[in-house]
Amino acid sequence: MNLTAIRAIYLFELARTWRTLFQSIFTPVLTTSLYFVVFGSAIGGRMHEVGGVPYGAFIIPGLMLLTILSESIANASFGIYLPRFTGTIYELLSAPVGVAETLIGYVGAAATKSIILALIILATARCFVPYHIVHPFWAVGFLLLITVSFCLLGFILGCWADGFEKLQVVPLMVVTPLTFLGGTFYSIDMLPEPWRTITLFNPIVYLVNGFRWAFYDIADVDIRISAGLIVAFLAVLIGVISWIFRTGWRLRS
Amino acid sequence: MSAAPPYVARVTNILSISGLSKTYEGGHQALKSVDLDIRRGEIFALLGPNGAGKTTLIGAVCGLVRPTAGTIMVDGEDARRNWRKARARIGLVPQELSTDMFEHVAHTVAFSRGLFGKRRDPAIVERVLRSLSLWDKRDAKIMQLSGGMKRRVLIAKALAHEPDILFLDEPSAGVDVELRREMWAMIGKLRDDGVTIILTTHYIEEAEEMADRIGVINKGEIILVEEKKALLATLGKAEAVVGLTEPLAEIPPGLADWPLALSDDRQTLTYTITAEEAEARGLAQLVKRLEAEGIDFRTLDTRRSSLEDIFVDLVEGSRGGSGA
């Protein structure tokens, strides 16, 4: 294992974040704060409690995930797509660096950014609503697993994309809609049939509910399914990435 | 044959390629069972027209291209099995000016060093940047640099991990004459420091100026590997064109065994010999013989064939198949 290379990639990627601090950190924090203002304070005041949790607090885990999912994908995909686009990938491919080092470096840096963002959002939420995390250990566990999974998904996207447009398609056209419709702002029990049943096919529902359960001990679905689904998702992504490196798909000729 | 260069005494090949083939998915065969040995400490120039397989060959050694068959040994390490050890020994300067344009020069060079598993060492980064006259630009963003400077940044990145073998893929592409000279001087300095250098080029002048040995690749096959001096001596030609005062009806019998050709207008004699023969039967002898035969001449032009002429001959297939 080339630990020096992991450190080099990780720090190089994080340095890019600090250089684009406004875009990387401030923008998502501002967007999430606006959600809190609109949904939490303005509309939330007129909403009933959901499962015994005030509406403003209820939406915190979902809002965190909304940002984590899109930022994880965006950061990890951009991290590997940029060297492919500029051609500097030659250096990574000619270096004594394997799958593990590449992944830990790129995905680790992207995940670090997402977790920093999540913590900033959590701290920002404190300015708008009071909350208490019931299962902090599980909250951290879900946060890590979900972040790493979506960073891996972003990495695959960054390998697959052959233009900046494709890089945008998955976060904007797939993940954001699924997150909005995945119970971020509501309990799926509020939905009439058949929408409730249909929603159960949206995998994001299980992520949001798993994370929300860690916060408030309430969930619309069995959280064992949530945990199992995340682990399975992670395993599939690692499998796909191993295949990419084994075959050199989109990387080596 | 010229005297053996000093490195031959050590007789070690730092890079051994055997049976290397690459067929791309579309069926294009870029390399056809290439065998090539690179000696420790030499400057080896790989010449070939566009699409000959130069970049594919470099890519296969450096890990950018997956070979279809063959083995590559980097100083005794199998580049496929012990790829980490093998790659750590090699630095690559690609043909394209692929840079992290938003990065600062020193930062990107330090990153390269880390990527190849070497500990952080600002002193080495500084030494590399100074040797390439980049130290003053260490805090500049790469996008602000000229093309020649960017090329030097790529060289600095390739040298940051102190490789034993440096691949330079078309180092002079898009570089002006002055910078090309500077680059040649720098490559010479690297060789003096013990770095083995393999460069691809289609500037014959570049190979002629710097290389110890020359390989010619065409259509995925190495058609010749030779010491540069020996190549020029055996395959190079010397030519003298004699402008006659009076037209000659035919070549006099006294000159029949000389390699002379009479032009159609009977006004010029062309004398062609190899560079080796030129030493034994040179121009002075020809002049004497012409005088002895009573042949007067007005002009005498001479030229020796350059590597370029040899290269064109080889690539046109007139001497194909001599192997590596």
* Strand arrangement in the largest pleated sheet of chain B: 6-7-8-3-9-10
Instruction: State the share of residues found in helices of chain A, binned by percent.
Output: over 70%
Return Rg of chain B in Å: 24 Å
Continuous helix count of chain A: 10
Organism (chain B): Sphingomonas natans
InterPro entries (chain B): AAA+_ATPase, ABC_transporter-like_ATP-bd, ABC_transporter-like_CS, ABC_transporter_ATP-binding, P-loop_NTPase
Pfam family, one (chain B): ABC_tran
GO molecular function (chain B): ATP binding
Outline of the structure:
The complex is a heterodimer of chains A (253) and B (324). Chain A has 253 residues and is an all-alpha fold.
Secondary structure layout plus pairing:
The complex is a heterodimer of chains A (253) and B (324).
Chain A: H1 3-19, H2 21-43, H3 55-86, H4 89-94, H5 99-128, H6 136-160, H7 164-180, H8 195-199, H9 203-216, H10 223-247
Chain B: E1 13-23, E2 29-39, E3 43-47, H1 54-62, E4 69-74, E5 77-78, H2 83-88, E6 90-93, H3 105-115, H4 122-131, H5 147-159, E7 165-169, H6 177-192, E8 196-201, H7 204-210, E9 213-218, E10 221-227, H8 228-235, E11 237-244, E12 260-262, E13 268-274, H9 275-280, H10 283-292, E14 297-304, H11 307-315
Parallel strand pairs in B: 3-8, 3-9, 6-7, 7-8
Antiparallel strand pairs in B: 1-2, 1-4, 4-5, 9-10, 11-13, 11-14, 12-13
Structural descriptors:
heterodimer, A: 253 residues, mainly alpha, 77% helix, globular, B: 324 residues, alpha/beta, Rossmann fold, Alpha-Beta Plaits, 2 domains, six-stranded mixed β-sheet, 11 helices, 27% strand, disordered C terminus
